[in-house]
Amino acid sequence: MADQVLQGGQGCPECQAASGLERRRFLGLAVAAGVTTWAGVTGTVFREVALAAGGSADNVLIVVSLRGGADGLSLIVPHGDPGYLQARPRIAIPANRLVASNAMFGLHPKMAPLAPMWNQGTFGAVHAVGLPHPNRSHFSAMEEIEDADPGSSERRGWLNRMIGLDHDRRPQQAVQMGASLVPTSLYGPQPVLATTRLKDLQMPGPSDPEGHRRTVRARHQLWDDKHGALGRGARSAMKVVDSLARLAGSTAPPHNGAKYPDGDFGRSLAQTATMLRADVGAEVVTIDYGNWDMHVGLGTMEWGAMLNTVDEFAHGMAAFFKDLGGLASKVTVVTLSEFGRRVEENGDYGLDHGYGNVMLMFGAGVAGGKVHGSWPGLSAGKLIDGDLAVTHDYRSVLSEVLKARFPALNLSRVFPNFKPEHIGSMKSS
Question: Considering the entire predicted model, what is its pTM?
Answer without folding.
Answer: 0.87
